[in-house]
Amino acid sequence: MRTELLLIRRRKAAEELMVDACTISRPGEPVTDPETGEVTDSTTPVYSGRCKVQSKDSATSTPDAGGASFVMVSRQVHIPAGAADVRDGDVVTVTASLLNPFGVGKQYRVEGFTPDSFETAARIPVKEML
Fold it and tell me: Cα torsion for 19, 22, 24, 27, to the nearest 10°?
């Protein structure tokens, strides 16, 4: 019981730092409008609510690929623990930010998420979609 109470307190503390808002959606099959012929991507909502976007590692890497160098920064999006069944391939869209208005509208694709038993927040590894 003591472990459970401690985890609840730590989850509340983690959520206090989630000052941004986001939606997470799962891409589905393309849908064709029978009247216009326009093809749109269907999505299923997975989560909408508070979040935090941050760098996972303070160090960056500069790999060489085909003679070109580029900088990679690992990113994470945090949402409350157990708030959603997030899967690889889901798309996170930042919808509001208290401290970083330049982050609003950014989109990230989930890559390599595995929930943990004692997590204080769901720390979702993502790659920015450009």
Answer: -150
